[in-house]
Specification:
single chain, alpha/beta, Rossmann fold, eight-stranded mixed sheet, 22 strands, 44% helix, DNA-binding
Amino acid sequence: MSKSRRRESADSESKELPIYRHRSKLVDAVRENSFLLVTGETGSGKTTQLPQYLHHAGFCKNGAIAITQPRRVAAITVAQRVAQEMHCTLGKEVGYQVRFDDYTSQDTVVKYMTDGCLLREVLADSSLSQYSIVVLDEVHERSLNTDILLGLLKKKILSNPEKGRSFPLKVVVMSATLESDKLSAFLGNCPVFSIPGRTYPVDCTFGFAVGPKDVDSTGYVKEVVKMAFDVHTSERAGDILVFLTGQLEIERACDLLFEKAETIDYRYDVQDQTVDGLLILPLYGSMPTDQQKQIFQSPPPGIRKCVVATNIAATSLTINGIKYIIDSGFVKQLNHNSRVGMDILEVVPISKSEAQQRAGRAGRTSAGKCFRIYNEAFWEKSMPEYTVPEIQRTSLTSVILTLKCLGVHDVIRFPYLDRPEERFILEALKQLYQFDAIDRRGNVTPLGQLMVEFPLQPGLTRALLNAASLGCEDLMLPVAAMLSVENIFIRPGKPEKQKEADEQHRALAAKSGSLNDFATLLSVFQSCKSSDRPSSWCKENWIHWRALKSAFSVETQLREILLRLKQKRDFPVETFHGNRSELLRRCLCTGYFTNVARRSIGKVFCTMDGNGSMVHIHPSSSLFDQEGELNWIIFHDVLVTSRVYVRTVCPIRYDWVKDLLPKLHEVNVYELSSVAREEVTEDEMKKWEAKEAAKRQADPAEDITKKLEKRNNEATISDARARYLERKQQRKQNKAP
DNA sequence: CGCTGGGGG
């Protein structure tokens, strides 16, 4: 196609979009209001068109237009598309900015970016003086960063819109139609502009196999397979998309589907996974990217494609030609668990709105059908109306530090669209205090100011800064990078391959020369980096090359930030005498003393936080089954399956954390909440300090051990164990016939 | 002796 023809088609295409006839009214509405809410379903064209209208109307004279997206790929692809429509080179008038990838220049006036990037920019310039308009897109997804930006912009515009600026900032909030009243009310009853979408009807039917009683079982995998096969053998042409929760489940479902398909005479030999006109394709995030791309190819004529996916297919990837949805009704979700004081991944029923979202994936190009394997009672009793927004179910430590650094002292009364539970906020404050990021009055410390600069969880940042002050950041930078990317160890679904992978991983641990999973990460990082052919090194060792590559990028970024901070401020440098292994572990202690555990009986360890949970070392750890002197450990994260497991573990000496442990108990919730609300008096503060001093007298380990005797800690284990046994039973029943 | 979704900086 010639260039002019392409231009023509892009132009006429955009004129056909539902948003086009609202063009002038939209521009007027933005001109007249500080806040505007634009709602519209997929296909309305709001993401690509609105910024162009505003650009043509001259809004970029004073500054650029920022449009935020919750995901990197979205920011990139939309920017590419808009650059094409505006006939400019990407990075000139139209550009994008995501972590590790900045396609913007002095000329950029329409800038697509991730919400996280804009939040970093707010930290550098809270008045956002380079922008005339901020457009928050996909607000209904309720990503943590978007929610925070929403509150910050509301606060700023309602209180002092022109502070630090030569003209007032405008904010456009874009969202699906759902909950538009609530959003408008939140933004001071701002006007709502709704744009019709362009989707086709999807006919939904309920199944009968899964009911409210099945919330804790995995029996749905079998049901999903059955239903997918029914659709394949009875419905007209059109591809199938199946929603399940995780990799192993998906691999199992694909195996079952393949077996079923083999029982039919009529067969095709297209690829080894293809029989009877059914092309079965798994899809999940940790899959190699080229394998992921395979799902976009249209199947050979006469063959039906069946994609078995995680929630990645709900928003991140859009597959064309999907006509049938099979919905398991479950999702894997990261929830904050106060009992362990950490975020834990668990399988839960989806919300009704999420079910509608899944169904909608069948109606993008033509009318479709959605088959839900659960019954109406499950819909009524087990599924909430809406998904609880991320801000109400994950750890807030980073977020609260960011707010504090932005001068939001009263983090409880901050304008949240949905307020997190107060105890979650207090927990975050407590952690920040423990890491010395805020003081007893809730003010950010100089250390906290340094910590906020790093794109890491606060504990890791704390350890990294400690390493820097001891002059051993070269040990900690790779470890921090490795722990902030997805799991780098590949563990396949097939048992034979598992054995092979496990052996390789054990060899890697042995190579690091110490019983320390953090040191193994460091060793893997260094070995791969110094290898001539890093990608084949990864393959041989069952390591995710993609994950390791991103760890390399993260490490470089962290190194640069550290260097910048060192030039800007005085860094206290202490000297340390001892060996490397001890040095690394001591640094880790400053960030992980909240995750200390002591051997209780046999293989059971007991955490030293107020909860005193009983935990086991995960079998993937090099410390698994190690007896002997191993009495004290720190760990990176917790996994609740058949037991409460800790993963990424290293042995420590009690001496190293002795002085830090009292911090786990000295924080009083009442005072902290007063601090958060700016209600604390000098008198109260003095009493508090006295109380803390008294607590510090006692030996923390003995103190906790005593407390534990009074508690029935078996509950922690037996809960998890009971659920596991139930699931196991369920699996047996499913296999029996 | 085991089983981690999807985002983001």
